[in-house]
Design goal:
This protein has about 140 residues and is an alpha+beta fold. It is built from two helices and six strands; from the N terminus they run αβββαβββ. The longest helix is centred in the middle third of the chain and has 22 residues.
């Protein structure tokens, strides 16, 4: 399959640029370590076909992170939500600065955006950790 691009590896390399990344980042796998992250691809959808054979595509993905939780009135839980919001801000900053994942020749990156206004706590674990997540979208034109 010549011309096939390893988009997921490129996405991993791009997210690893974020200074908030404090632990391991994997694809489709979230390890149980404080600050670990995962990219979970959701879908890649052609939203427009053009006469010149180019296509506008949405690449949707989830960013997930593991952080400790607290069952007291301290600020651990609110601090962790703020940490995830910082990730969402990072996504917005990359869009504003035009720093997109680079899929190579034939791909024109248009936009990257958060698909949720706030992150959510998706799962809690007996060891006192939680999985936080938010969806995002990369929009590109494939020539």
């Amino acid at each position: 399959m010549s011309g096939l691009v390893n988009k997921e590896e490129i996405m991993l390399e791009w997210v690893r640029q974020c200074p908030l990344m404090t632990n391991m980042l994997l694809l489709n796998w979230l390890i149980d370590n404080e600050g670990a992250g995962a990219i979970i691809p959701i879908s890649e959808t052609v939203v427009s076909d053009f006469n010149d054979k180019s296509k506008l595509i949405h690449y949707d993905f989830m960013l997930q992170f593991i952080y400790s939780l607290s069952d007291t009135t301290d600020t651990v839980n609110t601090d962790k939500m703020l940490d995830i919001r910082k990730w969402q801000n990072w996504i917005e900053e990359q869009d504003e600065s035009g720093n997109f994942p680079d899929f190579g020749a034939g791909y024109d990156m248009q936009e990257i955006q958060n698909l949720a206004v706030m992150p959510n706590l998706a799962q809690t674990f007996e060891d006192g950790k939680g999985k936080y997540q938010f969806p995002a979208r990369l929009i590109y034109l494939k020539n």
